[in-house]
Automatic annotation (TrEMBL):
Entry protein name: ATP synthase gamma chain
Quaternary state and interactors: F-type ATPases have 2 components, CF(1) - the catalytic core - and CF(0) - the membrane proton channel. CF(1) has five subunits: alpha(3), beta(3), gamma(1), delta(1), epsilon(1). CF(0) has three main subunits: a, b and c.
HAMAP family named in the record: ATP_synth_gamma_bact (MF_00815)
Pfam family, one: ATP-synt
Origin species: Desulfosporosinus orientis (strain ATCC 19365 / DSM 765 / NCIMB 8382 / VKM B-1628 / Singapore I) (Desulfotomaculum orientis)
Protein keywords: ATP synthesis, Cell membrane, CF(1), Hydrogen ion transport, Ion transport, Membrane, Transport
Annotated compartments: Cell membrane; Membrane
Record-level GO cellular component terms: plasma membrane; proton-transporting ATP synthase complex
BP GO terms, sorted: proton motive force-driven plasma membrane ATP synthesis
Gene Ontology MF: a single term: ATP binding
Similarity remark: Belongs to the ATPase gamma chain family.
Keyword Lipid biosynthesis: no
Bilayer topology annotation: Peripheral membrane protein
CDD domains named among the record's database cross-references: F1-ATPase_gamma
Length: 281
């Protein structure tokens, strides 16, 4: 059995670790609140843009935009959005596991565009080709960062380096529930809108689509990044909360062991004193 001094040293170490995990939990909770606010603002915008596309899909167009062109699928690109840091439970592992499964089931040639260090570092050990990588987006990614990623993805699609593009990210449901999802990004599927009112567009639907479709891709990527950031902070807050609780349980067990060791030492000393006194009689 470990001595009292060793157990006391372990209790001190665990208590210091508990203070760290508790502070990280509070920091993640504050960042989660901000990420949720940005996500709540982005979701209605994405839904409204979807509605505009539904109305445009009912209007006759003279040309087909390059982002709407469907080609025989020979090259598939996955845009994987993970975190730059760790200590966030199974957030990265679940998404990477889902992506790995999809890659294994895809018969076509697969390439990757990674956002975040964790996904990049994991798949770098494999034989999958990387078309682009983006890291260090920070805790509050901007629309310009998403626009840069979207422009690279659009360029790859228009040059024929990708026949289909899928977004792989973690959808934020709640602080304790995050769901890895796959969303088809390119080619853009025209929404099947309900036949309703006839709209007069100015400028023409072709001009609107030329401007709207790239912005639609940017919006989808931006929303996916915000979903991932909120999920990351929620997963980290939950993980740090569990670590703090586990540290408290460990301190209780170590305190019990220390008390037992102290009691055993006292009992041994009393036994030695009684034995010595009996020997003198």
């Amino acid at each position: 059995m470990a001595g009292v001094r060793d157990i006391r040293r372990r209790i001190r170490s665990v208590r210091n670790m508990q203070q760290i995990t508790k502070a990280m939990k509070m920091v993640s909770a504050a960042k989660l609140r901000k990420a949720q606010q940005k996500l709540s603002a982005a979701r209605p915008y994405a839904r409204q843009m979807q509605g505009v596309l539904e109305r445009l899909s009912q209007a006759p167009v003279d040309t087909v935009h390059p982002l709407l062109v469907k080609r025989p699928v020979q090259k598939v690109v996955y845009v994987l959005i993970t975190s730059d840091g760790g200590l966030c439970g199974g957030y990265n592992a679940n998404l990477i596991r889902k992506t790995s499964g999809l890659i294994a089931e895809t018969p076509q040639e697969v390439k990757l565009v990674t956002v975040g260090r964790k996904g990049r570092d994991f798949f770098r050990r494999g034989k999958i080709e990387f078309l682009a990588e983006f890291v260090a987006l920070g805790d509050a990614p901007s629309y310009n960062q998403a626009k840069e990623i979207a422009q690279e993805v659009i360029r790859l699609y228009e040059r024929g380096e990708a026949d289909e593009v899928y977004l792989m990210y973690t959808e934020f449901v709640s602080a304790i529930n995050q769901r890895p999802v796959q969303v088809k990004l390119l080619p853009i599927e025209k929404p099947e809108g309900k036949q309703g009112k006839q709209y007069i567009f100015e400028p023409s639907p072709d001009e609107i689509l030329a401007s709207l479709l790239p912005k639609y891709v940017e919006t989808q990527i931006f929303r996916s990044i915000l979903e991932g950031k909120a999920s990351e902070q929620g997963a980290r807050m939950t993980a740090m909360s569990s670590a703090t609780d586990n540290a408290a349980d460990m301190i209780d067990r170590l305190s019990l062991a220390m008390n037992r060791a102290r009691q055993a030492a006292i009992t041994k000393e009393i036994s030695e004193i009684v034995g010595g006194a009996a020997a003198l009689e």
